[in-house]
Every structure is written in C-alpha cells, then in structure tokens.
Amino acid sequence: MGKVVYGFPAVGKTTLYKKYGDEKNLFLDLESSDYHYVLSEKEKKLLVEERKGTKKKINPNWPENYFKAIVENLNLFKFVFVSHDGIDLCKKYNIPYWRIFPDYDCKEEYIERMKFRKNSSAFINKLEKNFESYVKESYQDKFCEKKFVLHKGEYIEDVFYREGII
Fold this sequence. Notes:
alpha/beta; 5-stranded parallel sheet; two-stranded antiparallel ribbon; 7 strands
C-alpha cells in the first residue's frame, strides 16, 4: 500500500511526478481541483496552476470523489501527492500521511515560485497573507506520520533523495 504525501504549494510535486511518476508507479500527483470542481472547456485548457484562485462550480460529488481517488491510487502508487483537502480527509478516515513544507524563512522564494508557474494573483495573495499560519499548522500537525521541512532552495525531490527513495 502506498503513502499519502501532502506537499505545500510550489514544493515541486508536479515536477517530481513528471520526472519519476512512470517509474514503477512511484509517484502520482493527485490534483484536487480535478475532483473539486466542474470545469468548463475553457478552464480545462488552462494549466492547473492558472486555474487556482479562480471561481469555479463545485462538483456535487466533492469530497467523496477525491477521497475515493486517493484510496484507489494508494493501491497503485508508492506515493500519492494530495492537496490540503486530502490530508483533511486522511485525518477524518485515519489514513497516515507525510507532510512536506517550507520553513518560515522561505516565504519570498515560494511567492516567486508561484509567480513563475503562473498561479493566479488571488492564489498568490492568499498564500502570501497566510504563509506563516500555514507553516505553523504544518509544524503543529499531530496527525501526520512524518514531517519534512524544506529550507531555501530545496524541493520535494530533495526529501525523497535524502530518504533513499530516488
């Protein structure tokens, strides 16, 4: 059975998935917006990061459809990357997970990463406003099995490299 991993926004989940995802079903980046919203044809053509922070219609099957996808994919992949909604579901259903997040001094770096990957200004502003509280929540999470703190210049790939996984 695989492991659920919550990676803070802009830690490099999608990049890692694209680099190693097909290797022995190692990683899956399970983007929650694909389950959370009913997307128009126009929205489907946008990059995932461009869709973040925009108004969309909620999928009536949310969040059960996302939870079902998480559980199904734990049988197929060693590591399933989930959104914050994913770890909320893991807490609710007592599924262990890892948490990978930046340290407090990485705020400006993460804002720049989000701008580079073309996140919406609404998403960037929300993260900028709440960065410290999000990091604090990560440090204080008593439910996660393992916590990994990223320092300046580090990405999620560095964690999996240090852990001997890649």
